[in-house]
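User: Hi! I have a protein structure encoded as tokens and I'd like to know what sequence might fold into it. I'm fairly new to this, so please keep things simple.
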């Protein structure tokens, strides 16, 4: 394609048309999500909310699932904006910005002050259609400020958030917000470690030193043993590595797996084992632990550890709850003659543990995969539109 073609009106018109089409699709999706939420349809698949269903069955991120749900709710209160969204004139991002104006608390405040929501709807829609995105954000912020110009003393916890995004290589991206007091506490704790760890010739950047300080802070707290217990056990960093890799001095990239599912090298696993406890676990051909190095019948903590190693989290379809949220469930109930064994166990979060005691059922097939059935006998499977052909 020549350079003249790149700047042709036809190509740019195509891009604009695709953006408009995406806006219309996003509008339809948000409305449908809201309708499904009102019908409580996710309960049929054993999930508590539309956001959790979108995460588990449509593989959306937590942030995107939450935004989609909020947009659906906002469109119900802002009909003019909804119409512009339907027409492709307004994006999902713009709707998300406007949604801040119609939270339950702000709707209540507007009603108390006699604010005409239709007027706000018209103003917001006009700005969204005709002006840059930044202008819309400012207009919404001014409206929110005018609703409560003085405001009560803010609850510091409302301004705190922390998101951990795990990448394919097991590394984490950290994003968060802290209020002034919480931020001061974190800075003071980190700075103590930053200043205590400044060896001669240190060429780390300030950001690298603070990252190391955060990890050291976590190490100290874990080692002190004062953290709340998780399902009756102290929080711990778990690593699974083959005995031959642990003994072999080679680097062994991708040879060990952490409790979160992250894969690390055998060399790093050996480094962690230097000041950690090493337990022997023998796995069978189906990947299930057979022997946890215990001379007697499996005690509760040993059985739980085996289930954690095998299942990695809640096994209920569409649920991603981590191991420390889960109970060990008897597939055949103990009172009905079920054994307290790994073969008769499944890791389930509290909600889904309750569900399987009220009609739902989980089963582990010979290939090691878990399947979930509803009380009516139908299986919960991924939506057909999202299954590879």
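Assistant: Happy to help. Inverse folding works backwards from shape to sequence: for each of the 389 positions I chose a residue that suits the local structure. Here it is:
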């Amino acid at each position: 394609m020549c350079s003249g073609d790149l700047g042709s009106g036809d190509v740019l018109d195509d891009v604009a048309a695709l953006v408009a089409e995406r806006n219309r699709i996003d509008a339809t999706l948000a409305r449908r999500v809201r309708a499904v939420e009102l019908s409580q349809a996710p309960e049929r698949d054993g999930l508590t909310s539309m956001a959790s269903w979108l995460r588990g069955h449509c593989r959306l991120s937590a942030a995107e699932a939450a935004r989609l749900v909020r947009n659906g709710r906002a469109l119900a209160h802002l009909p003019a904006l909804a119409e512009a969204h339907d027409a492709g004139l307004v994006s999902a991002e713009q709707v998300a910005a406007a949604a801040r104006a119609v939270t339950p608390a702000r709707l209540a405040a507007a009603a108390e002050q006699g604010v005409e929501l239709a007027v706000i709807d018209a103003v917001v829609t006009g700005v969204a259609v005709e002006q840059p995105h930044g202008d819309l954000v400012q207009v919404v912020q001014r409206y929110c400020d005018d609703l409560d110009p003085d405001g009560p003393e803010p609850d510091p916890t409302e301004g705190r958030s922390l998101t951990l995004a795990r990448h394919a290589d097991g590394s984490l991206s950290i994003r968060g917000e802290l209020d002034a007091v919480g931020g001061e506490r974190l800075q003071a704790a980190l700075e103590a470690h930053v200043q205590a760890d400044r060896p001669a010739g240190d060429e780390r950047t300030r950001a690298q030193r603070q990252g190391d300080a955060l990890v050291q802070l976590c190490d100290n707290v874990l080692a002190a043993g004062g953290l709340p217990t998780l399902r009756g056990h102290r929080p711990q960093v778990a690593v699974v590595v083959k005995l031959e890799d642990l003994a072999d001095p080679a680097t062994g990239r991708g040879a060990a797996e952490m409790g979160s599912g992250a894969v690390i090298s055998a060399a790093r696993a050996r480094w962690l084992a230097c000041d950690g406890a090493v337990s022997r676990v023998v796995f069978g051909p189906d990947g299930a632990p057979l022997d946890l190095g215990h001379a007697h019948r499996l005690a509760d903590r040993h059985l739980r550890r085996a289930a954690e190693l095998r299942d990695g989290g809640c096994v209920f379809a569409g649920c991603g709850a981590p191991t420390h949220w889960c109970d060990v469930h008897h597939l055949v109930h103990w009172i009905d003659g079920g054994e307290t064994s790994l073969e008769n166990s499944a890791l389930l979060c509290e909600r889904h543990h309750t569900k399987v005691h009220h009609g739902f059922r989980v089963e582990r097939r010979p290939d090691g995969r878990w399947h979930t059935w509803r009380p009516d006998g139908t299986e919960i499977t991924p939506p057909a539109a999202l299954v590879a052909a």
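A useful reference point when you look it over: Residues 9-39 form the longest helix (31 residues). Feel free to ask if any position seems puzzling.
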